[in-house]
């Protein structure tokens, strides 16, 4: 229900209009403004954590929105450069914010729109990872990734263990030495393309993890699941992966103690920091991941 609501404009307007939502959103989103995201980056970097910054936005419907998304990322890179934070901070973005779903050649359009951001990131000494959206965006995202990696080989991508195709995608990506972020997957997908059972998603995660950790690329292990983290730590140890040849990732505001533990244990730990005004879809996906979040949200509405 929550994932369906994440795509509803009517519910988006209702939820976004109430100021009561704000404190709950703040748990998952660093702020609406660039300076708030930089404050979060400084705090996390001070605690020994790396970050990946996401200027929130997805599913744009016109080209003017694409220009705004591009400019927001360019401004972010300029600010990171000015603050000397390029080393600790990479960028994450959704190609649907760069026009992937626009009618008539979305892939080509998105490639042209996103390339200046990837080029500016390389100039600032950092890199970009393409988030993965629902299954209809996977082929387009991988095509744009391939085109970008011709000039910018450090560009990375997220893959989702709930999709049946992901083990094959991991094999292909690892063979090209790609940076690959492995996640379980956050969208509502049909049984024709994705595992529906959580246990199957977890087992598929372990299989994909093994492919990535034995392959030649740079695995980014993105999960808060304690069992999967323990398996990943053990696998990395057994396979004698050098500490700088993979990393762990978690979302801003989730399992912060565990983030610090992994960093203290000598792993590179990167926190995904979303910011911006278009937080609705991201926020609803976080609510859907954990029923307790919905209770937290409902309580905060009732106690005001
Ligand atoms: P799982 O959902 O089983 O959670 C394990 C434990 O983590 C829970 O028991 C709870 O303690 C904690 N937890 C997890 N989610 C929580 C929440 N929302 N609130 C509070 N506690 C929570 N997805 C996608 O489709 N495309 C993408 O590009 C990305 N990108 C991405 C980047 C990074 C860095 C991360 C960590 C995740 C993503 N995701 C994503 C989201 C991912 O697909 C998945 O939905 C979430 O990570 C939740 O799954 P877990 O692996 O954490 O396991």
UniProtKB/TrEMBL annotation:
Cofactor annotation comment: Binds 1 FAD per subunit.
GO biological process, one term: L-proline catabolic process to L-glutamate
Binding site for substrate: 94, 285-286
Protein's pathway: Amino-acid degradation; L-proline degradation into L-glutamate; L-glutamate from L-proline: step 1/2
Xref: InterPro entries: FAD-linked_oxidoreductase-like (IPR029041), PRODH_bac_arc (IPR008219), Proline_DH_dom (IPR002872), Proline_oxidase (IPR015659)
SUPFAM superfamilies per UniProt: FAD-linked oxidoreductase
Catalytic reactions of this protein: L-proline + a quinone = (S)-1-pyrroline-5-carboxylate + a quinol + H(+)
Enzyme Commission code: 1.5.5.2
Pfam families: Pro_dh
Protein name, UniProt field: proline dehydrogenase
Organism name: Streptomyces xiamenensis
């Amino acid at each position: 229900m929550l994932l369906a609501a994440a795509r509803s404009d009517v519910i988006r307007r209702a939820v976004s209009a109430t100021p009561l939502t704000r404190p709950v959103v703040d748990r998952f989103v660093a702020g609406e403004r660039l300076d708030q995201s930089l404050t979060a980056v400084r705090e996390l970097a001070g605690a020994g954590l790396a970050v990946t910054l996401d200027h929130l936005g997805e599913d744009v419907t016109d080209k003017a929105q694409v220009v705004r998304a591009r400019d927001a990322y360019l401004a972010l890179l300029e600010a990171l450069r000015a603050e000397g934070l390029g080393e600790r901070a990479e960028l994450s973005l959704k190609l649907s914010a760069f026009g992937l779903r626009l009618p008539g050649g979305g892939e080509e359009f998105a490639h042209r729109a996103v390339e200046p951001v990837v080029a500016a990131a390389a100039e600032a000494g950092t890199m970009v990872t393409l988030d993965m959206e629902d299954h209809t965006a996977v082929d387009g995202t991988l095509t744009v990734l391939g085109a970008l990696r011709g000039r910018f080989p450090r560009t990375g991508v997220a893959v989702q263990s709930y999709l049946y195709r992901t083990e094959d995608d991991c094999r292909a990506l690892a063979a090209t030495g790609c940076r690959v972020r492995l996640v379980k997957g956050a969208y509502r997908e049909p049984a024709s393309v994705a595992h529906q059972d959580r246990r199957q998603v977890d087992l598929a995660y372990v299989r994909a993890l093994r492919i990535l950790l034995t392959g030649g690329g740079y695995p980014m292990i993105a999960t808060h699941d304690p069992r999967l983290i323990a398996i990943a730590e053990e696998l990395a140890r057994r396979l004698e992966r050098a500490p700088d040849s993979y990393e762990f990732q978690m979302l801003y505001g989730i399992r912060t103690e565990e983030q610090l533990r992994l960093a203290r244990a000598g792993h590179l730990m990167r926190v995904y920091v979303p910011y911006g005004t278009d937080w609705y879809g991201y926020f609803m996906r976080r609510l859907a991941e954990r029923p307790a979040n919905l209770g937290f949200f409902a309580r905060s509405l009732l106690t005001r």
